[in-house]
Amino acid sequence: MTSAELRLARQERWAGWLKGEASAAGLRTLIENAGWLPAAANPEAWPSLEAWQTASTVAAATARGWLAQLAGEREIAEVRLWPSGPYFVTGEMLADVCAWRGDRNPARDYRQDVAKGRLSPLAGEIYSILERGAQTPQRLRDELGAQRTSLPAVSRALNELAGTLRAVRIAFDEDEPVWQALHLAYPKATRTGLQRSRRSAAATMVAHYLQVAIVAEAGEIAQFLSPVMNRTATETALHALATARQIEADSLDGRPAFRGR
User: Distance from CA of residue 82 to its chain's centroid?
Assistant: First the structure.
């Protein structure tokens, strides 16, 4: 297969997903199909929330409301591990991510990271508050003390916690987002993830990537999944899936690649 052929094949596959039902249920189906749904559009890279809004003529505020509804039902979650921006995943995919990135002991692990300089003191303070329940940035700033910190500093600390899979937004209003400790917001997904083997979670994520991408080189898959797991884990999963005949060898512009089944 050539890159041009792959581009057309992906566009054809994704077009049906992006023109699905304009509802919360339709959005949930899109997230399930995409595996990881980015908010911002990049039509050649992956289906996106923005592309779905355009194709389905859904207003941004309406989409945020449906996301909040799905998050409230714990059907989907926002994950901020990727530098390019947030991705939305189903609870089942969140469990696979947690198998690799979730804290084994949330109350202990964040304190250790603060002590070792891997997490800022402000992020540690905010996490201790989120352990008591959901909060908005404004309420967090008020509890910490308006003279001690600022809203931008609180937002940076929340993003720091989200980037270590400790905090998650559960309501998406731009003016008043609501955050909670991940293990409290999604107890089933985090518990399932910690009980799931990393090898199984890696194989599931790699197989799903190929279902969406159709054909991809090992390096492309490893690069996308690098915020979750290391390259060796991706390569091991590809080998296991190929041995089990769940994926097959292919080529892309003459280079070795894999195709999903």
Answer: 8
What does CATH list as the number for 101-192? 1.10.10.10
Please name the fold of domain 21-91: Arc Repressor Mutant, subunit A (1.10.10)
- pTM greater than 0.90 (yes/no): yes
Distances (CA, A) of 9 to 5, 40, 198: 6, 21, 31
Query: Check: CATH 3.90.1150.10 for 197-260?
Result: no
> Both tokens of residue 188?
């089933």
d(CA 50, CA 47): 9
Show the tokens assigned to 29. Answer: 């189906």
Confidence of residue 44 (pLDDT cuts 50, 70, 90): low
pLDDT confidence of 147, banded at 50, 70, 90?
A: confident
pLDDT at 45: 83
| Residue type, position 73, single letter | E
- pLDDT at 261 (0 to 100): 82
Give the tokens for residue 186.
């999604």
Q: Spell out the domain ranges in the chain.
A: 21-91, 101-192, 197-260
